[in-house]
Specification:
heterodimer, A: 74% helix, B: alpha+beta, Alpha-Beta Plaits, two-stranded antiparallel sheet
Chain lengths: 195, 262
């Protein structure tokens, strides 16, 4: 296991192949929770946690259950099952341990269940045939990239609130345009060469 | 074993294990909610007006259920009925209820009556206009008429008339949000059983008031003399009703030369 490969995976998943801005996965919570910085940080942490856990558990499930029995075609079904259970558990645990965080995340926590970034990371891991540690790192990096994009967006949106926007663009349209511009900026990271 | 059986057994087994995990977690991390809070939330009006002094109905219900606040009568929109229900849930016997009241605009100087000092063309809010020489009317006490109170009202109880004055309808339940919002303080809460009001609170001298507003109190003191219960007091060039003495006879309305009292 060399560190260089892990570094390239983590930087690749945070910047070069950012889940929101390059792959366009998980846009729903990205637009929903990015209204203020505090809740976007909470959401980002929740996503990091779920993505890391989901990618490692999905790897184990795929390798030792699905592959050994030759039923890889059930990948989608099983991954969704695993992710849904994970999110439910995280929700129950957060509700007990930190009601404040639970309140600020509100309806967005169950949204992680249907967040395609979480499902996407599990699929990408198996497509790229990563091993266990690489999968976990990839999931973690993907979560950090998600949080980065979410926090950047929330900072921008806090400023958008105080700027004069033409009426047809006010609200969600300007957010979509901003997302597009941010995505173009992130494409610049594609030139980053990791040795 | 063929592939269909394997799939069915594996997915079924996994679902069973996950289900068991979830059950365990939901027992282990079960959050005990105070059942009274749910009940209180159902009773409270749920308009989050903040008249009780807390951040919304949820917060008030939290404080009540936790026993931090013991007064069940803080909810203004709910008034008596809600206070009694809350007291019943919390096991408090006696409830002293506030009398229901409503907001009254104590200014009659709309765009027809009051003289303007300049045309205002800035941000269309009373607060904004108030920052520029105290609004566009010459009268420094009167209603600016840009409707900050209509926007803050959670009950849709205030609307602007064509004359540029707010009108309170019977949806008002006296939460007092508009009173805090108004930069000129031309709104006040009056007990529902009183309906005679002096629609002016200018402390300018009568001579000046006569020049700048046709509806203003000019300090003639006719109402003070006409009142059979001595409920009208005159100070700072303005007649004021003492609501504890007023009996709604309406004698003052008849004698007022400017129609300030209605």
């Amino acid at each position: 296991m060399d560190i260089g490969r892990l570094m390239s995976i983590i930087i690749g998943s945070i910047l070069i192949n950012n889940f929101i801005l390059t792959r366009f996965l998980g846009c729903c919570p990205f637009l929903g929770v990015s209204k203020d910085t505090d809740s976007s940080i909470g959401m980002g942490l929740a996503v990091i946690f779920v993505m890391t856990l989901a990618s490692s558990i999905c790897w184990v499930v795929e390798r030792y259950i699905l592959m050994s029995l030759g039923i890889e075609y059930l990948r989608t079904l099983v991954f969704i099952l695993v992710i849904a259970v994970l999110v439910q558990m995280v929700e129950a645990i957060i509700l007990k341990t930190s009601p404040g965080l639970y309140k600020s995340l509100g309806i967005y926590l169950p949204l992680i269940t249907t967040n395609c970034a979480v499902l996407g990371v599990a699929f990408l891991n198996s497509d790229k045939s990563y091993n266990f540690i690489e999968s976990t790192i990839h999931g973690f990096g993907g979560g950090v990239g998600f949080m980065l994009a979410l926090i950047l967006m929330s900072c921008i949106r806090e400023r958008i609130q105080f700027s004069k926007i033409p009426k047809p663009f006010a609200g969600t349209p300007i957010v979509f345009i901003t997302t597009g511009l941010m995505a173009m900026a992130f494409i610049g990271f594609a030139g980053l060469i990791i040795q | 074993m063929d592939i269909i059986t394997t799939s069915a057994v594996i997915v079924g087994g996994m679902s069973f294990i996950f289900g068991a995990c979830l059950t365990y977690v939901s027992y282990k991390f079960a959050v005990v909610l105070d059942p009274r809070k749910e009940l209180l939330l159902k009773i409270l009006p749920g308009v989050n007006c903040g008249a009780c002094g807390f951040a919304g109905c949820g917060n008030y219900a939290d404080k009540l259920a936790a026993g931090e606040i013991l007064s069940p009568n803080l909810c203004v929109p709910g008034s008596d009925a809600v206070a009694r229900e809350i007291a019943k849930i919390l096991g408090i016997d006696e409830v002293s209820c506030k009398n229901p009241c409503k907001a009254v605009i104590i200014c009659g100087g709309g765009s027809k009556e009051a003289v303007k000092q300049f045309e205002y063309d800035g941000v269309y809010t009373c607060k904004g206009a108030n920052l520029i020489a105290g609004g566009n009317k010459v009268c420094k006490y009167g209603c600016i008429g840009f409707g900050d109170c209509t926007r803050v009202c959670p009950f849709d109880a205030i609307h602007m008339s064509n004359n540029g004055l707010p009108v309170v309808n019977n949806k008002c339940n006296g939460c007092g949000k508009c009173i805090n919002e108004c930069p000129k303080k031309v709104l006040t809460l009056v007990d529902n059983k009183h309906f005679v009001n002096i629609l002016c609170h200018s402390n300018d001298k009568g001579v000046l008031v006569r020049k700048i507003c046709t509806k203003g109190c000019i300090g003639c003191m006719k109402c003070v003399k006409a009142c059979p219960t001595q409920a009208i007091e005159y100070e700072n060039f303005l007649a004021k009703i003492n609501y504890t003495k007023c009996n709604n006879c309406g004698e003052c309305i008849k004698v007022c030369p400017t129609g300030t009292i209605i």
